[in-house]
């Protein structure tokens, strides 16, 4: 499937036609809604909060924030930022409750320190990896965004950003930028290794250094494996894995499998030499 | 745009980050509207400590509202005093700035507000 990020800038891609299509498509609506619910679950807000919606678009996710019932800690008040004027126009017509800002998140977050209880972003931050002019670079845009976000969150505040990384490089670039800004960062994958995989970048601004999981979000959640890249396994670090070795082959096979390729099962014969026949 | 949001917005220009004058932004030629929103006392108590009271006093005088008391109410007095809660709710959440400009006190940059949406896009040399 083609990625809109590869062809155009966000503000040009989401013109009037595209913005309307995006907001009226029931498929997109459902996906957005379920991702917002998941993000809210990860934020774990106990009381009505002031939330930043990054890349709010037509307010599909914001609507859900305003509708959280009282017994689940809502309703929240939110402020949305988006670069596409057409998207915001649709949001106006749909009469969303939050405040809207026309702003480029790659230029920073124009709020004073400690403004928000939490931040949420649905399918937006991968756009930061595109820089169309020579004056900006993806790295610069990412660092301005995460620095701004870190500032504008209150201490102990959380941010959950769902995004579609193009590849592992982009994923690392985004995570590293968040860590550099000072966040405790973790990535949560829903339905890993399937077509419907959803990647959530969970960020904590200051606060707890809980054991196992730095973000403290998945505490007590079922079916979640915590992989911490800071804790290196004793094997790793002793030089590179030798190309052509059994470990190397298995690693490559796993990589291919993750990409959805058909891979032959690993057996005791994997990586063995074919001896000369006699 | 709600007055609550106005109390948190700063100038986005890079050179203004270190200046004290870049907050609060000063509304100019503001057209206001009133929007009925259900009162949410828990939220108000929650955001109260984060509100910059001096900035809120400046903004509300600039928007033409009667002057606010010098000291912010504490969470307890706010919870007990329903009239004050209502007033604060009307000012912070129900009052909307629909048209006008927001002016930075440091660099003088004007952010246009149209239909309640502020335009914070900057030319690249200011980022």
From TrEMBL, chain A:
Its main location: cytoplasm. Keywords: Cytoplasm, Methyltransferase, Nucleus, S-adenosyl-L-methionine, Transferase. It holds the Pfam family Methyltransf_11. Belongs to the class I-like SAM-binding methyltransferase superfamily. BUD23/WBSCR22 family. InterPro entries: Bud23-like, Bud23_C, Methyltransf_11, SAM-dependent_MTases_sf. Residues 52-161 form the Methyltransferase type domain. This is S-adenosyl-L-methionine-dependent methyltransferase. It comes from Podospora didyma. Residues 221-275 form the 18S rRNA (guanine(1575)-N(7))-methyltransferase Bud23 C-terminal domain. It is found in: Cytoplasm; Nucleus. One of its GO terms (cellular component) is nucleolus. One of its GO terms (biological process) is rRNA (guanine-N7)-methylation. GO terms for molecular function: rRNA (guanine) methyltransferase activity.
From TrEMBL, chain B:
The lineage of its organism: Eukaryota, Fungi, Dikarya, Ascomycota, Pezizomycotina. This is Multifunctional methyltransferase subunit trm112. Belongs to the TRM112 family. GO terms for cellular component: cytoplasm; nucleus. Its main location: cytoplasm. One of its GO terms (biological process) is tRNA methylation. GO terms for molecular function: protein heterodimerization activity. InterPro entries: Trm112 (IPR039127), Trm112-like (IPR005651). It is found in: Cytoplasm; Nucleus. Keywords: Cytoplasm, Nucleus.
